[in-house]
Amino acid sequence: MYKVGDIVEVKFGFTSKTGIKSRPSVIIDLHRADCIVIFMTKEVHKYKNEDTSIIITNDNLEQGKLKTTSILRLHKQEAVLKDNITIKLGRLNRKTMALLLKKLTFIDTQRHYYAVHHPAQTTPFVPGQSRINYAGRVYDEREMLNLVDSALDFWLTAGRFEREFTAKLAGFLGAKHIITTNSGSSANLLAIAALTSPKLGDRRLKRGDEVITVAAAFPTTVAPIIQHGLVPVFVDLDLGTYNVNVQQLEAAISKRTKAIFLAHTMGIPFDLDQVLAIARRYNLWLIEDNCDALGAKWDGKYTGTFGHLATLSFYPAHHITMGEGGAVNTDDTQLKQLVTSFRDWGRDCWCDPGKDNTCGKRFEQQLGTLPFGYDHKYVYSHLGYNLKITDMQAAVGLAQLDKLPAFIEKRQQNWQRLYQGLKELEEVFILPVIPPRAEASPFGFVLTIKNGAPFNRQQITNFLEGRNIQTRTVFAGNILRQPAFTESAAPYRIAGELKNTDKVMTDTFWIGVYPGLTAEMLDYMIERIREFVREKAW
Ligand SMILES: Cc1ncc(COP(=O)(O)O)c(C=O)c1O
Q1: CA of 291 to the centre of ligand 1 (A)
Q2: Edge-to-edge, what's the strand order for the sheet holding 177-181?
Q3: How far does residue 184's CA lie from ligand 1's centre (Å)?
Q4: By percentage, how much of the chain surpasses pLDDT 90?
Q5: Quick one: which of 89, 191, 258, 341 could link to 209 by a disulfide (CB 3.0–4.6 Å)?
Q6: Considering only the top CATH level, what class is 6-107?
Q7: CATH number of 142-345
Q8: pTM for this model (two decimals)
Q9: Where in the chain is the domain with CATH 3.90.1150.10?
Q10: Which fold has domain 405-536?
Q11: Catalytic residue among 177, 264, 308, 318
Q12: pLDDT attached to residue 12
């Protein structure tokens, strides 16, 4: 007959030295013969600053009346026999119950984090035995609390967390519009898709138009170009920065060239002065794949804020994570609407999930040959996708955003430590290069084995992997040598020679710099690389 949320008077044997004393309590769980209660106390002043306390006044009740304002200290829980309940005093209202139960869930979540995740995160590093990953999630209880908070909202689709994440990320970057999406790959797909919109008139990308990019790319920078009937034009890169060679870029431009789509490879900005100047000179769209470079700067300004559109990834390897996730950013309001349309089924309407009639003309427009007043929510200006994120993803991302400046700094410090430790090996390695006007937000530490070195990549990466140091290649290497190209008829053009790209495919690898790495781990990596080179030199 009792319910969770009931305020009852309970007899406690131990609360008074003189014997049994009755105390008002709130039931938070019920079993057959007993229940779990939280004591109420009048000592509001004493406990009001505890974040595990809730002040209760008569406004918090749906039944009954309190004699005085009281406080519930949520960690003061007790199992009592139902027989010891003497009287029902009232009942909390639904809003207060929701808050109380949410706070209890938070206490459990925090307990779970500190009992399960935190020990795993703080296990001492054992050289040779502990795995040194190339990247990984770095988080604490705040990400888990946000995730649980959004789960309890059960809003599911983009909601309050997504709005806050979007506003905060826009503020960080100094970007006008952020359009969240379910991955960096989706962000790339949307950036290209948006530029094919007929609403752009003559400037739209049409089948057969060319988009210049590099071949040592992440596959989903290139794939959307082909998927939209466009022709990727591949140019070579510079070793050290692993970014486009700007001379070759300009030489690659033809009458059909309409866009440039380049990543800031491994967190090192490409030459934005020159690439922007070329884009302007030839009236080309510029898309920055900023997925690996969040927080990098060119001339003091964040990468991703120079081109017409830019993309981000929030996969766990990246600078901040939400598991799966990504975003497109732009300062151009028309492009924002186009990206949003392609993301949201291709629709013309831009209502947020769960909202109707944001435009105020939902049933009052003549659109094309549609019947007058056709529901704007069901008008499609594009053949789009559904690539939206959930509020749970955004909730995790929001907690990560608070850590972003520290993450960037730690990545830079880790990169510097590796650089200082490995620069003596310049005889055998091409070390990474950060252009003078750039500030990198490193994704990893890239090494290319110089011609004539007494070892090859397979030997060194096997050596490192065997010592529990994870290694990676610069993505697809020369993507044209991947089965996706050799076993398909995908149209493309190569401008100039891809000599350095081929070298990257055979001789380049990278190791981690992510914020989860400690100085001890970095020094272990440096030592093992030095050891390998020493042994080979003999
Ligand atoms: C440069 C670049 N672009 C795009 C992506 C794709 O991002 P996502 O894994 O979120 O799809 C990645 C992934 O690592 C990447 O490195």
Answers
A1: 6
A2: 177-181, 326-330, 309-313, 285-289, 257-263, 210-214, 231-235, 493-494
A3: 5
A4: 93
A5: 258
A6: mainly beta
A7: 3.40.640.10
A8: 0.95
A9: 405-536
A10: Aspartate Aminotransferase, domain 1 (3.90.1150)
A11: 318
A12: 78
